[in-house]
Structure formats: C-alpha cells, structure tokens
Amino acid sequence: MNKQDKILIIGAGLCGSLLALRLAQRGYKIELYESRPDLRKVDISAGRSINLALSDRGLKALRLCGMEKKAKEISIPMYGRFMHDKEGNTFESNYSGREGEYINSISRGDLNAILLDEAEKHENVNIHFNSSCENVDIENTIAHFKDYKSKRKFFVKADVIFGADGAGSALRKSYISERKFLFSYSQNYLNHGYKELEIPADNSGNHQISKSHLHIWPRGDFMLIALPNLDGSFTVTLFLSYNEGEYNFENLTTTEKINEFFEKEFPDALALIPNIKKEFSQNPTGALGTVKCSPWSYLNKTLLIGDAAHAIVPFYGQGMNASFEDVFVFDEILNQELSDWKSVFKAYEKARKKDTDAIADLAIDNFYEMRDHVANPLFKEKRKIEMDLEKTFPNQYFSKYSLVTFNENIVYNEAMKRGRAQDKALLNLIVDDEVHTHLNMTKEELRSILDKVIHETDKILQEDKIAGL
Amino acid sequence: MNKQDKILIIGAGLCGSLLALRLAQRGYKIELYESRPDLRKVDISAGRSINLALSDRGLKALRLCGMEKKAKEISIPMYGRFMHDKEGNTFESNYSGREGEYINSISRGDLNAILLDEAEKHENVNIHFNSSCENVDIENTIAHFKDYKSKRKFFVKADVIFGADGAGSALRKSYISERKFLFSYSQNYLNHGYKELEIPADNSGNHQISKSHLHIWPRGDFMLIALPNLDGSFTVTLFLSYNEGEYNFENLTTTEKINEFFEKEFPDALALIPNIKKEFSQNPTGALGTVKCSPWSYLNKTLLIGDAAHAIVPFYGQGMNASFEDVFVFDEILNQELSDWKSVFKAYEKARKKDTDAIADLAIDNFYEMRDHVANPLFKEKRKIEMDLEKTFPNQYFSKYSLVTFNENIVYNEAMKRGRAQDKALLNLIVDDEVHTHLNMTKEELRSILDKVIHETDKILQEDKIAGL
C-alpha cells in the first residue's frame, strides 16, 4: 500500500484505462500494458462490439474520475426500446416512466480513447501498447509479455499486478494453470452467437430510424438489435443459434439463404443494410459467454478486475457499467485505508462478488426477455403498468430494469432480488385478475395497484427467506 | 453402433465398471483401462471415501445388471439420522415415515470389486490396470496412457471412447485443451474440506454406536458424520472450513489444538476415535467440488459419464447413485435403437443433463441442511410433520428427501422442483401458524395439513411458472 509500489495493470481496455486513471489520481505509480496497438492511432474495432450502452453505474465511476461530462459529450441518449415485428409494425417501450432516465449509446473506441488521453496526462502513468501478456508468475509477481511487432518476449516484475485483461484474461489462466489454491471457475456459453452488421447514415448523414431508441426485432429464438452511432449509422447485431432452428450460423452459408432469412424475418431491417452480403461473410461470429470465478486475488500480489473476473453476456447493457463500477467499489475500499493489498483485495471481493454474480444472472434473464418476452401480451401489460407506476409514483416504484440501470446506489444483488420478486408479484397479480390496466388509469387505481404490488413483493421476499431458513 | 465397434472405457471405478458390465451384457466389445492397481489385490482406499450411501437410484441400475442382490449382501441399512449435540444428547430422525425405505452403507472398494468380478466373467471385456490416461486425441479417438509401473507411455485407438474417469477426468481436460468446440465448464469449491477418521469396532467386533443410522454432529459452521462398516467400525468424516472460523484446517496443526477442538465440539465422538492424532495428521484433507459441463460428447467419438461429467459434493449421498443412474439412462437410450453413436450421445445428454444439474444443486442445499438446519427447531417441526404425513398417507406424501432418495422413477429435476416448493410451503405454513404439530396427531388433523401443503405447493409451482413466463 506504499505509494512507491510498482503497480502493473494488464489491459488498457475500458476497465484497465479507468483503473489506471483512478489509481494515478490517488498517487500510485502505474505501468499499463496493452496487447493491441494504440486504438487512437489504428482502427482495430471492426466487427466487434462497436458501441455499448453507458448508464448510471458507469457514469458514477466516470464522475469519480472527472470523466462524466466528456463521456456524455460523445453519447447518444436512448429513452426506450423500439420494437419491430415481421410485418414492419413497430411499438415503443420506455426504459422508465420517470423523466431523465435513459441509457447512452457510446462508441467503445471513442470512450477508451478519452480515458487513455486522461490517464496519459499523469506523469505517474506509463502506457505500453503492442504488449500481449502470455502468463503471470503469480508467486513472484512477474508478468511475461510478447511484443506484437518484434515478437520479442520480455517480462516485467512488479509489486502488485492487476489483471484487467478481459474475458480471456491471461492472469486468470495463470490462476488455473499454477494451481496454487482452490480456484472456483466457470465458463458458460449460450447456444447463440452474434454477428455485427451496419445501417449506414442516409445521404445527409442522418440516422434512418429513431436514434433515441435501442431497436429490437424480437423473434423468439433469435433477434436483431441496433444502437445509434454519432455519425448517423447504427451498429446492428444479430443474435442467433449456432446450430439449432431452421436458420442458424452453421447453415447460413450462402448469400441466397442469408437473404431468404432476412427477407422472411427482418424485411424492414434488410432494406437498411446495403452491405449485408459482405458484412455477414467477413465479420466474425462471436461467442456469448459468462465467466465467474473466485478468489479474484492471490495473497498481496494479484487481482482480477472487470471482465477478467466476471465476463457477462451483453443483454442488460451492463458489461462496461459493471467493470466501471468495479473501479468505483475498489476506490471505496481504498478509502478504508486498510493495512495491506491482501486486505484490500479480500475486502473488495467480499463487497463486490455477490453483485457481479447477480448481474451475470440478470444478463442471462434479459436474453430471454429481449428475444421473446417483449412481444408477449402478458409481459407488455406488465410493462405498461410499470411505466404508469413509475410516472405516477416516481419515488415509490422502480421496475427491475430501473433498479439495475438507473439506481446506482442499490447494489446489483439487491436489485436482482427485489426486481425478480416484484416481476413475479406483478405477473401473478395480472394472471389472477387482481390488477387490470386500461388506457387512462386514475391515480387512485394506480395507488391500489402499487399497494398490492408492494404487499405481494414483500410477501414473496419473506417467504423466500423462510424457505432458506 | 456396430457390436464389433471397439469401445474403450477410461476408468474402472464404480461407474466405469458398471458401464463396462452393462455394455458387455448387451454384446459390445469393451477395453476397460484403470489408472490404479487392481483394488482386489492392493488396498488403496485409505483416507478417502471409504464408504458410501447406496440408495434406490443406484439399486435400480444394479438390478438392471443383475447385481442388486450381491450389493445388498455387503450393505448395512441406515434408517435415519442420529444427531449428537455438544452435551452428548442425541435424537433420531428417520429418513422416511414409510416402512422399508432406508439407505445403505457400503464399502466403495467391496462394491467396486464385485462389479469388476462380474464384468470379468464376460469374455468381451478386457480390463487393464495401472494405466493412467494422460490425454485423449478426441478427433482421432486415441487415448494416451502411461503405465504406472514401467512409466512407459502407450496409446490405444478405439471407435468410441467413454470417459468414466471421475472428477479429474482426462477426457474432460482434453475437451478443454483441444478447443474443438465451445465447452461450457464449471468447477466450484466449497470453502470446506473433509478429513476421514475412524471409530474402530469394540473388543467383540461390534459397532460402538447404532449401526442402523447415519450419525451427525451438526455444529453450524462445521460437522462430523459417521457411516457404519461391516467389520464393526465406522468411517467418520469431518467437514470443516479451510481458513474461516475459530478452528479450521489451516490452524488445526498441533495435537493440542486438535484435541481442544474435539473436546469442545465433539467430546462423545473423540472418546471413540483412539487414533485421532495419527489419522488427523496422516489422512489427506480432501476438497469438496462441484463440476458441471456441456456438451458431454464430441461427435460420434467420445462421451463423458459419471463424475467425469458431473462431480457433486457428498451431502445428499447421491454421487454414486447418480453415476449408476447414468448407466441406467444410457441403457434406456440404447433401447431406442438410434442410428449412430452421435445420436445416442445427444439423446442421452438431452435426457440426463437437467437431472445431474439438479442433484448437484440439491447436494449443496443438503450441506447447509446437515451441518446447520437439522438442529433448528423450525426444521425439526417440519421433519416431524413430514414423518407423520408419510406414515399416515404413504402413497400421497413424499418429502424432498424421499423424492430424491427413494423415488427412483421421478427424475432428479422433478424431485428438486417439487421438493423445494413443498419445503417452502410447509415452512411458511408453520411460521404463519397455519399448521401445528403435537404428539398424537389424529388422521383428520393430518389430512387437513396434507391438503394445505398440497394446495400451497401447487400454488408456489404455478406462481414460479408464471414468473418465468
């Protein structure tokens, strides 16, 4: 915990850059290593998660580091979902009934760039690109690298090593291979992969569909989504099974079949994606995996953070937000002024692990919700009631989505427990005909629904607690 | 699916031996490889899971192979739990209110031996000991071995390879390292380890405590259990945290401290374990891990089965039973006469995976139940009611324990869902003062309780279903 400690951070992606910045602001000496070239000089993002949804938990961490304003300047607000059915009919569904609650579409590369710019302003930060970490000698805190250009191998000795090196973390792999302790670890893949496509801007450089929404084409077993970019384009992502159903990534191998699939399922989107043939064949098909593990740290030597500790599927738009919140929580632990890194690492995992487990599970839930439930009449009635409740009782009702996305002071695990119980209560009240919705609900009617939902939610939480003894 | 196919089974433990026997009975040609020496000639079991609980799912599979009677001959029936508190007070709790429902303590080695004896009677089975599988070339179905004695390496080519090689499966490791497909995989350790001790027979060769029970010394954060052996001894197992609490495996390093711990927590047991000093220091501390993975098979070439596919913690006494049931379910799939091994493997995993996931989760539940809940007054009242219900309505009420242990025709996943809902219903009925128990319940009183439990259970299951949309 000496400010003279040499701190090595592996990975200058979103989490690693923000962590480097924050630790530099606190006065630590940081060596930041990144496997790829400097993304501010080379375009390296094609076909992979070009834009992301930035929301309140991420903003909270950016604010801590003085970066909120700069991030918002390069963001596009999305106020809700914009659903497209097969016939081209559309309907909107807000993310919140409250004013001022929205998520932000932001370019991964642009955000990463402003974080690197800011980190570099600190003379106690050195950034090294093209340095791919191959493994870490965790006992001696030595990281082994390979230079991307010269292929030369080298190593760096540090006092403390942070692995912010993403879902394929080299530090995490070293935890597994070195077998110094019992390491609980899981990698779970969905049977769906994803592929990115593009809706370009129109001739005037404007967005061709509403840029104030996250667009969804839900089709039960698969779906298409689109997020707006600043240049008027949309990044479109197809989520589809590798090998199940009539159409899947394994059998969509010819232009005819790809066209047939899009003509049948997404005709309105197809009309907006001129380069579908090239993009479908050239962009990679990405896997959708969840990684959980524990412990995150080894003694007073190393710590996993961000995706390296908890990679999640993208369906709650919380991957980046969770990683940024990691930095926020880690900073809070540092404020406790514990005596050594080991205590800091343990306190951090104790405070954080249940929450990153929760958002991983919530993200899987939302996969089913987005591709399937959003078009379900029961689900739609529930969302209608929730929007009315949030609008009418902005300080008393928060949907699961709001709890997770807009209530950055409620930890993920609490948001999950309360949100799931509330969803269960409301769905069952609707099915049991205990609550009804119509176009113009009076405040008294809504008050009565709110009371029932709160009562049933508390009952469910209480019964679950008793069942757990 | 040709009877002339060369089938290689890695692992001649309980699952591999039974699988070899069953496939031999069906006329297949089997090469069975085992890393250890022939356990019928060498004693190799010291300090590790000496005895196990055999129950109805295991017996069902043994029956299929004509081995039930022989197994029962070397079993000791255990009718319930026998709890010991710190003051030496005891109370019993039956596993079932029905006649003839009990579990069986059996020696792992003895059972393995009779399975090997039976398998060897088939001329289409060849057993090779001292052959440790190092890895499998899954594309070419070649298993690489090392001879335990000569250290010579050799390989075996087969048409189909079954990995019945336990929690540390070499075949499963090859799935991970060969990266031919997206392999979902998890290994999760409890923070508790285990150590085996022994209560020897008395001078006349008799059991010193009731041999008709599984003994438990529940202490909240840790516990001791004991299962009877045929020779009058008990195998005792201590489950204790590695590094948490006042006493743990990391700090129990001196004879004084070990004695102090047992004197304070288990004085009655300590008096029965004369060699505690030697056993505590010499027997290994085992880890308690759960392994889940998917897919279990690769094309028409390889399949994981038993612990290799799904290692679980021992707290439901279902590890061996689940592995034996694997063989039963696999045999049922073979009865469908599908066209090729790939179809068989896929159908088998589709039929089986949700059930092995369920028993893994149930086993974790039971860890908390055994070390903690069994001594809880609310839990005890629930068990009392359940015993009365099972006794009075033997065809209408089945506790979760009965569903899992004695109802071999109800799959684990159904037993888990129904059992958990039923526990939740009953616990909440007790807390809400909707049901009461007293010494001599009339049939009418019990009937009324039964009706309430069934009603509440169905309601819980229905509400869960709606919440899942």
UniProtKB/TrEMBL annotation, chains A, B:
Signal peptide: none annotated. InterPro entries: FAD-bd (IPR002938), FAD/NAD-bd_sf (IPR036188), Kynurenine_monooxygenase (IPR027545). One of its GO terms (molecular function) is kynurenine 3-monooxygenase activity. Its cofactor is FAD. Keywords: FAD, Flavoprotein, Monooxygenase, NADP, Oxidoreductase, Pyridine nucleotide biosynthesis. One of its GO terms (biological process) is quinolinate biosynthetic process. Residues 6-359 form the FAD-binding domain. Pathway: Cofactor biosynthesis; NAD(+) biosynthesis; quinolinate from L-kynurenine: step 1/3. It is an enzyme of class 1 (oxidoreductase). Gene3D superfamilies: FAD/NAD(P)-binding domain. Its EC number is 1.14.13.9. The keyword Oxidoreductase applies. It catalyses: L-kynurenine + NADPH + O2 + H(+) = 3-hydroxy-L-kynurenine + NADP(+) + H2O. Catalyzes the hydroxylation of L-kynurenine (L-Kyn) to form 3-hydroxy-L-kynurenine (L-3OHKyn). Required for synthesis of quinolinic acid. Belongs to the aromatic-ring hydroxylase family. KMO subfamily. This is Kynurenine 3-monooxygenase. It comes from Polaribacter reichenbachii.
